[in-house]
Design goal:
This protein is α/β, with parallel strands linked by helices. The protein has helices at 46-53, 76-86, 102-112, 119-128, 144-156, 174-190, 202-206, and strands at residues 4-13, 20-30, 35-39, 61-66, 69-70, 87-90, 162-166, 194-198, 210-215, 218-224. The strands form 2 sheets. The chain has a 6-stranded mixed β-sheet with strand order 6-7-8-3-9-10, with helices on both faces. It has a 4-stranded antiparallel β-sheet with strand order 2-1-4-5, with helices on one face. Belongs to the ABC transporter superfamily.
């Protein structure tokens, strides 16, 4: 069974003359642990696709299954909890909470879920993310690369089955971009997490297990690039 199944998703924004068909009957599946790059021109529908997969927005029609769960059939509260436990989001803008330290930002999703963070895993993450010496710093005291690493830590702390990343390296230089991608790959291999990552960077896309291209709301699967 695929970890992610997207079935015949259509998304139309607006109505009448202002209607925009952002996704036109998009279907694909992703096995557990696969690292998938989503490429395509500006306005082609990539972010819309990621928002549907992560259930941040509802499609006009179609279904999304994460680990066999039909997300759009869930009630709002159940969906919020399911998403918090199973999906990690990483955005181009790091979206950190400025009043919280590095460590507090990372464990925030766990606290939201009324759970206690796994201390061993937190230490492991801080080490892998090279943030141990910055754990008590605030976001304003960090570089862009460090802030993105905190955002990655926050996405990984719940060990979600699915990680959705929208241009995670968009604000980073090439050195930091490579580090961020390496970290994501390491996570996907070590914890068998499935990653769907939008990128405009061709060389980053080429390092993915598989590339999906979105053009004008339709999807082309370029299959596996590496064996
Ligand atoms: N909330 C919205 N209301 C109306 N139209 C929208 C909305 N969000 C996106 N669109 C339109 O849907 C289409 C797809 O947008 P989307 O943001 O998914 O593209 P994208 O491929 O992610 O672009 P970029 O690479 O520039 O971020 C575009 O034509 C966009 O103008």
């Amino acid at each position: 069974m695929n970890l992610l199944e997207v079935k015949s998703i259509c998304k139309t924004y607006g109505s009448g003359e202002a209607a925009v068909q952002a996704l036109k009957n998009v279907s694909f599946g992703v096995p557990k642990g696969e690292f998938v790059a989503v490429v395509g021109e500006s306005g082609s529908g990539k972010s819309t696709l990621l928002n549907m997969v992560g259930a941040l927005d509802t499609p006009t029609s179609g279904k999304v299954f994460i680990d066999g769960n039909d997300t759009f059939s869930m009630k709002d509260n159940a969906l919020t909890v399911f998403r918090r436990r199973n999906v990690g989001f990483i955005f181009q803008a790091f979206n950190l909470i400025s009043e919280l330290t590095v460590e507090q930002n990372i464990i925030f999703p766990v606290l939201l879920d009324y759970q206690k963070p796994n201390k061993k895993y937190l230490e492991e993450l801080l080490t892998v993310l090279n943030l141990k010496e910055r754990r008590n710093h605030f976001p304003s005291q960090l570089s862009g690369g460090q802030q993105q690493r905190v955002a990655i830590g926050r996405a990984l702390i719940t060990r979600p089955a699915l990680i959705l990343a929208d241009e995670p390296t968009g604000n980073l230089d090439s050195q930091n971009s490579s580090e961020v991608i390496a970290l994501l790959k390491q996570a996907s291999k070590k914890y068998e997490q499935t990653i769907l990552m939008i990128t405009h960077n061709r060389s980053i896309a080429q390092t993915a297990d598989r590339v999906l291209q979105v053009s004008d709301g339709t999807l082309t699967d370029f299959g596996r690039c590496r064996e």
